[in-house]
Amino acid sequence: MTATAKQDQLTALFKAATVIPVLTIERLEDAVPLARSLVAGGVRTLEVTLRTSVAIEAARAMMAEVPDAIVGIGTILNPNDLARAEKLGVKFGISPGLTPDLLKAATDSALPFAPGIATASELMMALAQGFDLAKFFPAEQAGGIKGLRALGGPFPNVRFCPTGGVGEANAATWLAEPNVVAVGGSWLCPTAEVRAGNWAGITAICQRTLKALKAA
């Protein structure tokens, strides 16, 4: 698959998702019920972050037992992380930042990948390797919507998935920006609700969020 085809595939996936929950799985036994609760609420595209020791097994369990879930791996920090994600067979990868080594590995990989950027220089590095869809992170801390619009001036063809400070109250505002294809965040699955096993509550948050975004 060409670099352009990979980016187009990822853009279509993100546009269809609109909202991508950022999942930090602490207990493997939470993975499947969490995925089911998100899918039941209309949220199918899930980012499992490599922030815990059970992340890979959690993603594997979600793919095996929740076929309607579209599972990706986030917090990819180096080529080894990328290789683990690709071997697992997930649909996409996301990084909070970029390095030359990671960009090279992502270029050589068949896995659709969104590097993280916060500055124009980082975005130029990504574009030089063919990545025109990027995670804008940390979105609010990196200038918020004003920062995103500033990047849109010299880079009008780049598409973004802002993450970091995006929540239920401001998701619609971010999605209204013409260069935003989706937003990411953890508000759809609060840690307290996951620890309590309140799967119905998480489903309700997803339904409420999607209803509000549709109305907006």
Automatic annotation (TrEMBL):
Task: Tell me its EC number(s), please.
Answer: 4.1.2.14
UniProt keywords, alphabetically: Carbohydrate metabolism, Lyase
Classification via InterPro entries: Aldlse_KDPG_KHG, Aldolase_TIM, KDPG/KHG_AS_1
Q: Which domain of life is it from?
A: Bacteria
User: Which Pfam families does the record match to this protein?
Assistant: Aldolase (PF01081)
Q: Write out the catalysed reaction.
A: 2-dehydro-3-deoxy-6-phospho-D-gluconate = D-glyceraldehyde 3-phosphate + pyruvate
Q: What pathway is this protein a component of? A: Carbohydrate acid metabolism; 2-dehydro-3-deoxy-D-gluconate degradation; D-glyceraldehyde 3-phosphate and pyruvate from 2-dehydro-3-deoxy-D-gluconate: step 2/2
Which GO terms label this protein's molecular function in UniProt?
Answer: 2-dehydro-3-deoxy-phosphogluconate aldolase activity
Signal sequence span per UniProt? none
**Class of enzymatic activity (EC top level):** lyase
Quaternary structure and partners: Homotrimer.
The text of the family note is: Belongs to the KHG/KDPG aldolase family.
Its recorded name reads 2-dehydro-3-deoxy-phosphogluconate aldolase
Originating species = Bradyrhizobium centrolobii
